[in-house]
Every structure is written in structure tokens, then in C-alpha cells.
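User: Show me a protein chain along with its predicted structure.
Assistant: Here is one chain, sequence first, then C-alpha cells.
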Amino acid sequence: MSKERHIIVTETDLERLQRVIELHADGRNAELAEMLEQELARAEVTSSQDVPPDVVTMNSTVVFEDAETGEIRRVTLCYPKDARSDEGRISVIAPIGSALLGLSVGQSIQWPVPGGRTRTLRIVAVPYQPEASGHFHL
């Protein structure tokens, strides 16, 4: 999966994401839920008020670069029920969604994607983070 790197998750996100994992643990997304669970197990957990503003939290808008292609994408990380790829709303249960969670600007991650490939993603910017904007209950 990923080499060890520092990730940060808020207490609120952790609680909500544990429910997402439970909902998907036995379904067609069981493997993806397990990958998310592994990431959360090693995350530093902090309060919503103390999370740095450059960290990707749930409902954050993030700009990232695919190191292989140079493609830069802007997406919003959301819960599965709110995912709309045509609107740039990527589910946290999707491989790239799980990869982005908890990273901060400048960090990179190598992450497996469907088809047996691995992509290297680098966080370029977090133009919107709910916690930094004082939106603690999205």
C-alpha cells in the first residue's frame, strides 16, 4: 500500500469513517473499506479545532498532482453517499479518496489503483478545509 508517512485525522472524521467502514465491511467495497481502516489505524488523531489548515480532512477541496502523468486535479473528498465523480466529489472509500485523507500540502503517496498499477500522488493545495473555515459539523 503506502510507505509510512504522517497523516492526521480529526476525531469527528474518525468517528464518522468508522461507521462508513462498518457499512461497507461485508459488501462489494469490503477490500476498499479495509484499506481505509488500515490508514486510520496509524493516523494521528486530533480535534477539529487543532487540525492544521493544510491537511486533507473530510469535505476538503484538494488539488493534487499525478506524478506519472503530471495531471493536476481538484476534487472534494466526501462520504460515499455524497460522491459524484462528474462534479469532482470523490468518495473516501475510493482508492484515491483513501489515499488523500490525512495528507498535508507537499506530501506524496504511492497508492494501488485498479488494474494492479500504483500511482504517486502529491498534494499541491487544500483550497478549502471545513475546519479551517469554522465549519465543524459538515
